[in-house]
Design brief:
- By secondary structure, the protein is α/β, with parallel strands linked by helices.
- The protein has 12 helices and 6 strands.
- The protein has a 6-stranded mixed beta sheet with strand order 3-2-1-4-6-5, sandwiched between helices.
- Helix 3 packs across helix 12.
- The longest helix is centred in the middle third of the chain and has 24 residues, at 157-180.
- The two termini are 14 Å apart.
């Protein structure tokens, strides 16, 4: 029986060298291939492919920033239909704040915690991956739906802080990618949080008017949960779309392409 492997990093193989290299001694890249690989490639590739017909353009004309926000979170700048840079790195720990993962931190934090708390390197790694992020900041949960409910009912300061840090980090990457690739036509929201929690989309977009992104209240209201469509105003220089991802369909298509 033929078997096909579809790697989650494959879509990011088009990143230029300056996007994937770390500024550490070059021999470690040669010896161990330490570099930024990126993940969620199947999702970002699907979104790029789906956006093209929705926007009425050719696949090689897709110049967007895609956001996969769910149990795992990542951003990707897509230029000419290909991955130009992404937020995750050597492992999925780098980049955005996630339910239980810290995202970007100062690397010296590892040595500091080992010294001050007597933690081993494995304990610090477990803390950053399984006890940080939304869970670590709020002290309650890593589930965004529960945090929003808790914020609305009890106005807990740490819950609001966790949500604000999450949204601020997403905005940071949108702005960085917009500048790094010389602009973008649209920001595409996807993943469990983006597709089903409109309040987070609104909080992420708050402050992005400087990039030309203006949400349309009527379009936001008309878009059903799990639906797809444009949610920005017609005059917006930077459009905003919601497109549910379908990694399974992308994997099936890639498998059929290989076997065909």
């Amino acid at each position: 029986m033929p078997q096909v492997a579809v790697f989650d990093t494959a879509f990011h193989a088009t990143m230029p060298e300056a996007s994937y290299m770390y500024a550490i001694p070059y021999q470690y890249y040669r010896r161990h291939r330490i570099r930024r690989y990126g993940f969620h490639g199947s999702s970002h590739q699907y979104l790029a492919g789906r956006y093209a017909p929705l926007a009425g353009i050719a696949p090689d004309e897709v110049n967007i920033i895609t956001l996969h926000l769910g149990n795992g979170c990542s951003a990707c700048a897509i230029r000419g239909g290909e991955s130009f840079t992404t937020s995750m790195g050597f492992t999925p720990l780098e980049g955005l704040v996630v339910g239980t993962r810290s995202g970007d931190v100062d690397p010296s934090l590892v040595e500091f915690l080992m010294s001050k708390e007597g933690m081993s390197v494995h304990e610090v790694d477990a803390m950053l991956n399984r006890h940080s992020g939304l869970l670590g900041l709020s002290g309650l949960t890593g589930d965004m739906r529960d945090l929003l409910a808790e914020e609305a009912e009890h106005r807990d300061r740490r819950v609001t802080l966790a949500i604000d840090v999450f949204c601020r980090r997403v905005r940071h990457y949108i702005g960085a990618f917009f500048a790094e690739r010389g602009g973008a036509d649209a920001v595409v929201f996807s993943g469990g949080i983006d597709e089903n929690v409109p309040a987070i989309r609104a909080r992420v977009c708050d402050g992005l008017a400087c990039l030309g992104l203006h949400l349309d209240a009527s379009r936001k209201a008309a878009l059903a949960l799990g639906g797809e469509g444009c949610i920005s105003a017609g005059r917006a220089a930077l459009a905003a779309w919601v497109i549910p991802t379908d990694e399974e369909l992308l994997i099936a298509r890639e498998t059929a392409r290989v076997l065909g």
